Amino acid sequence: MTETTTAETESTQSHTDSEQDDDILRRVQPTTKPVLIRLGLVVLAAIAVIGVLFTNPTLLGNRDVTNVGLLIVQLLAAIAIVRLLVRLLVLRRTEYLIKTDAVSRRYALFLRTNERQVPFNLIRSHEFNQSRVESLLSHGTITLNQGLGDLKLWNIANPQEVYDVIRDRAENR
Amino acid sequence: MIRRGGAVLKGLFDAVIRPSKFVKIRQATYLRSRLGLVVQFVKLSWVFLTNLLLYAVPLTLAGVGFTSAATAPNWFETSAQSLVRSPDVLWRLLVGTTQNSAFLTVATGVVLLAYHSSILFVLSSRGFLRSFYTVVYATSAYLATIFTGVMYLSTASGVDRAQTLIIDVQKTVFYAVIDAVDADVGLPGGRPDELVLSGLSPKGEFIIGLLIVAALYFIYSLYLGARINHEMSRLKGLVVVVAIALAPVAYIAASVLYNTAVA
């Protein structure tokens, strides 16, 4: 991969500009399904492990060690659940814009708007990845300028179609 | 001030909820020029120093490492007299803070050495500064939490069993290495009896649980740093994790062999 300076812009500001609809080729809303599935799996796994430890207080040798184990599982499960809920919230408020001259990711949360944009003429690499869960659901993630302050477009439905648009415009610049 | 408070809160949030974002190097493009590298190195050193003080000063003010008998040397007394009423107290505070910072600084150095060496070993280095960045952030948050927890155990009441358990675990690891290299050395207090895992108070259980979670976070953040900042595969990332886990063993073995050679 060739490394070159990427003039990405990241702004956290009150969003007041009106997007010119003519400039927008695609407006993509990420799907929340993979996150919801992960959240469900984490909750189920946490309930199962906590239940087993509660009903078998000497499972890890003695009651004290099991209590420590229980505490660790509860803490990690709580952190994982909060993490996935935050991700869910951000995804729900995110949109990806493929414009005539740039790709941008924008989300608005708690009265703040965050926008990150890469102009097509500064795209140095583009990748399309699907995890196992994403593969099953026909969703995917597109990464632009990996390792150069990358821009990730997570959880896109019909990802190949969106990727083709980005790749064509990036390579024909 | 509010902006800085917000940044600290965001850092805490990332450290707990999004460790991948916490250790991911920002402004990677700056690492392409020599001047950029120097600027980043200075910035990272400043971050480390600030976090070190945030860790060590409260510990010192809480009385850990604060030696009440020490008196300031003449040169310090002369220069500090115009600034403070009691140079001795300031001297004790400085000495205590330095002592409390020393262990974390040495531990950071050992981790950085082991971390970057293992990254070089698997031929995946994308620059020392990326390792430095990962280690500075990982130690500032998670290793400092572990040290604070251990310090708390050594001073708080009602956690005697937990304190003994932590000391005995460390001694057991030391003696496992001593036995492995067949060295004729020992620790003050001798070999511990069998580890006693019962009789912990709820507070002791809580602290031990937190210490284990912080240790897991520490290892995981170094793994994430290897994967994200050095763009490594999962397998290579695991090799780095194993190297970090073995670093204390190598450090103990080196100390034991050094002491045996000196004796």
Protein architecture, described:
The complex is a heterodimer of chains A (173) and B (263). With 173 residues, chain A is an alpha+beta fold. In chain A, 42% of the residues lie in helices and 28% in strands. Chain A folds into 2 domains: 24-31 and 96-171; 36-88. Chain A contains 4 helices and 8 strands; from the N terminus they run ββααββββαββα. In chain A, the strands form 2 sheets. In chain A, strands 1-5-4-3-2 form a 5-stranded antiparallel β-sheet. In chain A, helix 1 (33-55) runs antiparallel to helix 2 (63-92). Chain B has 9 helices and no strands. Chain B has 263 residues and is an all-alpha fold. Chain B has one domain (2-29, 103-262). In chain B, helix 3 packs across helix 5 (87-121) and helix 5 packs across helix 6. The A-B interface holds A 3, 5-6, 61-65, 67-68, 71-72, 75-76, 79, 82-83, 86, 146-149 and B 16-18, 26-29, 32, 126, 197-200, 202, 205-206, 208-210, 212-213, 216, 231.
Radius of gyration of chain A: 21 Å
Q: Into which percentage range does the β-strand content of chain B fall?
A: under 5%
Strand fraction of chain A equals: 25-35%
| Unreliable sequence segments of chain B | none
Biggest beta sheet attributes of chain B:
none
Oligomer: heterodimer
The rough form of chain A would be described as elongated
Biggest beta-sheet profile of chain A: 5 strands, antiparallel
Radius of gyration of chain B: 21 Å
Average pLDDT of chain A works out at: 83
**Which series of helices and strands of chain B comes N to C?**
HHHHHHHHH
Averaged pLDDT of chain B, please?
85
Helical content band of chain A: 40-55%
Q: What is the overall shape of chain B?
A: globular
Q: Could you tell me the number of beta strands of chain A?
A: 8
Total number of helices of chain A: 4
Kindly state the percentage of residues in helix of chain B. Answer: over 70%
Give the neighbour order of strands across the main sheet of chain A. Answer: 1-5-4-3-2
Number of helices of chain B: 9
